[in-house]
Each structure stands twice: as C-alpha cells, then as structure tokens.
Amino acid sequence: MENKLPRPQTPQNPLRITVGSPLAIQGIFLEIIRERFTTDAGIGIVWREDITETDIIIETSYNEEIEARNASPAIYVTRLNTAPSKETVGDRAGVRLPDHLEGFIALMRVALSIECVANDEGESAIIGDIVQHMVLASSDAIQETYGLHDIEHPVLGQTVPFEKAQTKWSTPVNVNIDFMARWTAVPIAPLLQQIAQRINDCGVSANDHFRTITLNSYRRGDG
Questions:
Q1: Fold of domain 22-185
Q2: Do residues 73 and 45 lie in contact, with contact meaning Cβ atoms separated by under 8 Å?
Q3: What residues have CB less than 8 Å from 57, skipping those under 6 apart?
Q4: Which of 45, 71, 123, 191 has a 20 to 30 A CA-CA distance from 163?
Q5: pTM
Q6: Helix-, strand-, coil-residue percentages of the chain, each rounded to 5
Q7: Domain spans of the chain, in order of start
C-alpha cells in the first residue's frame, strides 16, 4: 500500500502542491465528505456544487466568500499541524550507486479538523455523527485507494457555539492521517558556494552580511 501516493481528482501544479502533500490530503477528505452527502446517500441533506441549490456547504475553511453568505448547515475541512517523524537514521532510505543519488523517507502526520456547523445544536451534532461514522467505517478503503499509511479513529468533539458566529453551533470531528513522504536531495554545496561568493564580492564579513539582510528584512514593512 505504501508504494502509492495520494492523488486528488484535479490536476495540480507540482511546483506548488506536490502529489501526496498535506493539501492533497485535505482535498481527498473534501471529496469524500461531499460524496457522502450526495442524493444517492438518502440522508436528507444533499450537497450540490451550485451554492444556490445545495442543502449543505462543504468547503475548506475558511472560504471568506462562502462565509459571507452566512450559509448553514456547513462542513469546513481544516488542515491543522503537519509533522514528519524520523523512521531511519538521517531519514535515509537508500542510495543509487552509479550516481550516488540519495533517497530519503519520513512518516508524515496530518491533523484534520472537520467542523460541522448548523443553526440548530441538534442538527450540528447529527452531521458530526454522520461524518465521524463515515470516516471510521471507510478508513480501510480510503487508505487502500489513496495509498495512505494509517488513519486514526476519528474523535467526535462536543457541540459548542461556533467561534465565527455565536448564533450557530459547531461539532468538530478530528482525525490524524499518516502517509509516507519520499524525496531526493539536490546537491547544496554549489548553492552555498554562490552565497559565499556574493559575500566576498560585498567586501564584508559573513556575520555583518547576514546581520544586515536580517535588519533590512525587519525594516521592509516600515513606512
């Protein structure tokens, strides 16, 4: 299973969002939750792409344009912390001997908070229960389909007043997702040599150079 990578349905710019990135994980769960609230699900709350016709908003949080409409009920998928763990010494996975290209690996953990928002406390709790059970019951299939390492059991939180609108209620569903991240390293020595050469051309010490660029950066926002 670990030889797969999470792949969202829409094309991505690999220079901005890599395949298997935390943003891709967020997109995967956004798609899955939307699918749970389709007409075929028969749960009486239907997600439609047209915001003027949908029964429920399902978006990443926080979409200011959608929030300005004061829409409810809604589900907001928020990416929280993303943290790699060290699985091998120096994160090294191996080396290709002909050209000495090194490969690296780490286990990435992404924390997601899925906020289930509604005008009514009971409706918020019901939507939260639906989302928690969906993630719990389908976690094995999600892992296999998208090549995830593990999905921890989702935690259903207390229904409380929604932070962004005290007239609404929010029930959070929190879940941690693990996936393997792999990468290779670009030789950094030439880049460091270029920096050293620029410092020499300025005729100042390295300490003075780095102190100056730091101070200039602090002052850049001053009027």
A1: Alpha-Beta Plaits (3.30.70)
A2: yes
A3: 51, 66, 71, 72, 73, 74, 75
A4: 45
A5: 0.73
A6: 35, 30, 35
A7: 22-185, 187-223
